[in-house]
Write a structure and sequence with these properties.
Elements (H helix, E strand, L loop, with lengths): L18 E5 L5 H14 L9 H6 L1 H7 L1 E7 L2 E10 L12 E9 L8 H15 L4 E6 L4 H9 L3 E2 L5 E4 L2 E9 L3
Parallel strand pairs: 4-5
Antiparallel strand pairs: 1-2, 2-3, 3-4, 5-8, 6-8, 7-8
Amino acid sequence: MSEETRPPDQSAHPYPPGVEIRVARPDELATIGELTAAIYVAGGYINPDNSYILRLRDAVARAREAELLVATHNGEPTGTVTYCRHGSPWAQLTAPGEAEFRMLAVVPAARGLGLGEALVRRCISRAREDGCRALRLSTEPVMHAAHRIYRRLGFTRTPERDWQPHPGVELLTYALPLST
């Protein structure tokens, strides 16, 4: 079964009504890139003049070099996350046998529907499918709602792995040990 036709994982936690989590389709990539950038700017996580905005918009590269997941609500893209296996150009934290996810974003109007948690759960499922022993992530200190999701799903802080991609940009790290 191809990644695009793989059914959503609903075994542990059903998605909210009208929600689908799946691999992004090529015709959605431009929308997903703009959606990701707009959410990060609107949330105050990045300045629109920051060069990282180009990475947020580059859904085509994320889909090609990692696994770009989309959450749709009633057929409309409303959230996204990038799942990265070790060795992907998008993986920043992984060691062999690990995966990570990045760029979790949900449109403000869809918050409260459980889309962020559903996207993270799908990443957990993908990491287990890949036989990973851990799933990792980096997050900004101000992303409190995301931190609550991570803790609720069993992720723990790994402060020894905290890092700075650029001077003045502090990233916190979390990990979820997985049994294979």
